[in-house]
Amino acid sequence: MRKIIHIDMDAFYASIEQRDNPALRGLPVAVGHEGERGVVAAASYEARRYGVRSAMPSVRAARLCPGLVFVPARFDTYREVSSSIMDIFFEYTELVEPLALDEAFLDVTVNHYDNPSATAIAKEIREKIHRRTHLTASAGVSVNKFLAKIASDYRKPDGLFVVKPSAVEKFVEGLPVEKFYGVGRVTAEKMHRMGIRTGYDLKQFSREQLVRVFGKAGHAYYLYSRGVDDRPVNPERIRKSLGAENTFEKDTSDPREIRAELEAMGKKVWSRKSEKDFTGRTVTLKLKFSDFRIITRSRTLPSPVASQAEMMSTAYSLLEQVDLTGLPVRLAGITISNNDLAEFQEAVQLKFDFTGNFQ
Fold this sequence. Notes:
This protein is of the alpha+beta class. It has helices at 12-20, 45-48, 58-64, 75-90, 118-133, 145-152, 168-173, 185-193, 199-203, 207-214, 217-224, 255-276, 308-320, 340-347; strands spanning 4-9, 29-32, 40-43, 69-71, 96-100, 103-107, 137-142, 160-162, 241-252, 282-289, 294-300, 329-337.
């Protein structure tokens, strides 16, 4: 029996904007361009209360919420935060399937900490995300992807919901059909006309009946109504880097405190590097200041980092290049990247044509 976690960040883009600009906190925020041709990319929970949703025309969003504040999207920032969150996932398992920048499935049936409790792992992950990014995430835990994804939506925002094996049948029977994979508005209306409004109703139909009415999707509906989903978590990301970072309990400009934190992070990185047999030639120092501005400093060595001492010496040298006389630092981290094997495997995507030639 699998142990699957679905992590979904809460109003990801909008929450980052509110985090980085305190003046936006508590206000209805839409990420996107205002105006006739604008579209909402994301909406804060304050805006969602008025019916504002992603992919909605900005003009309509502004009508629904007269006080709506539009902010331009910063996708480079969103991707950077997403990368930090994905790194947390990889601390627990290599079976990570990202669905977008703000959500992913994790299979923790077997995990790096030998923790038998998927619920405890989900709780730890949410705590780490909040500690490192000052953002909240919701999690769903169950025996398969279908149930875990639905569960993650139950206690949003900043919630955790578990569907235990013993509760699967009752849980699925009570689900509105709109919650099922592949059931959009048109399919839901079709089901409603057939008297199907819940998982229990759907369960009363045979596989043959469902296939006859809904085509191939009928097979999936038949299985989902019984809580069955055999799809594995498919990792889509080649590990190109390995790192660790941590937020200080109190912002600091003291180089000694920053070096001490980097040393602790370096021990974690080297331990994980040895455990995963990972190699890399580039050492990157990451610092986040009290205004949430992030800087990175990198150095690429002629050969893979040979020892923890070499990694730390490089990191300390990079730190000496940073002016620490301004705003204090709130987070520090170290990353090893530039894995020659991973880069080679990604670059050499050879295609074989029908004449037998590589291209």
